[in-house]
Amino acid sequence: MSMTENNLDVLIIGGGPAGLSAALYLGRARRRALVVDAGEPRHAPSSGVHNFLTREGVAPVGFRELAWEDLREFPTIEHRQAYVEDLVFEDHHWRARTDDGQTLKARAVLLAVGVVDVHPEIPGYAERWAKSIHHCPFCHGWEVRDHPVAAVGGNDYARHMGPMLKNWTDDVIVLSHGEPFEAETEALLKELKIPFCPSPIVGLEGANGALETIVLENGTRVARSAMFVKLGQRHHELIHTLKLPLKGDHVEYVEVDMMQRTPLPMLWAAGDITTGFQQVLESAASGARAAAAIIMTLAMPAH
Ligand SMILES: Cc1cc2nc3c(=O)[nH]c(=O)nc-3n(C[C@H](O)[C@H](O)[C@H](O)COP(=O)(O)OP(=O)(O)OC[C@H]3O[C@@H](n4cnc5c(N)ncnc54)[C@H](O)[C@@H]3O)c2cc1C
């Protein structure tokens, strides 16, 4: 079945686990869907995907390739590498403009664009990111089990990640990188016998992306083989131009109902943009929920 730019049932923006899981549901439901993906997976620098049952340790890019192997069986699903720059709803359809000059028209849209990580400023950080510096112990805690590790972040993070890392190793230190410790944080860490220090990090040592020593401003040298850090996040511009309602305390997520529907007409959102539990399995699950709701909605009269 050939697809013109005007006869799409669903435009899926973002070809990560959320978008591709939705594509599988839509393909199996014989709905015409185009996945437009800029091709920048959030976890690309990581060596492997963990906690996705049956796919333990597969490379992030390999995960997507496996998904497309599955999707090739379903002729109503297509893929285009491009960046959606603009999205408007008019005459009961969504119209999208891509950076390669195409205009796409679809009855429904699934936003599955993922988030953009904002990293802390620490000298020597970039070359160690996703090698010896991680953000998620579910994803990478097992790889550093029984190693000396540091949790690096302010009070909220220290109270959460300090105790959490004890699941994987007894040798945890909390470094707040300049933020003074509150009495509540100190009391908790002392009770759990977790050492802590507020001195800013001024250097990281270790060859080829490895971490051996964290150097603090006060002159202390902390021998560590991994750090877990607090990431900031921001949304892609598309989320803001659509003026989608956001909710949340520290990080704001796109507001959706139980089936991932946004308050805008025929617009669903799934994956990292809608939750703080940012995992591949969870993204795939929310993409599936969105697709199920889209499939039901498309079967109804359009008015
Ligand atoms: C270093 C690291 C390691 C991780 N390891 C694990 C792990 O081991 N296990 C686990 O469960 N989770 C892990 N995660 C989390 C996991 O990567 C995310 O939860 C998951 O990738 C989110 O899927 P998604 O489909 O929402 O978005 P993404 O996977 O980020 O995919 C979104 C896609 O949309 C594209 N896009 C964005 N804007 C546009 C646009 N306007 N037009 C077209 N395309 C666009 C992007 O280029 C990207 O390809 C890790 C995260 C990081 C950062």
From TrEMBL:
Name the UniProt record assigns to this protein: NAD(P)/FAD-dependent oxidoreductase
Keyword annotations of the record: Flavoprotein, Oxidoreductase
Molecular function as annotated in GO: oxidoreductase activity
InterPro entries recorded: FAD/NAD-bd_sf, FAD/NAD-binding_dom, Ferredoxin-NADP_redctase_2
Annotated organism of origin: Lujinxingia vulgaris
Domain FAD/NAD(P)-binding: 9-286
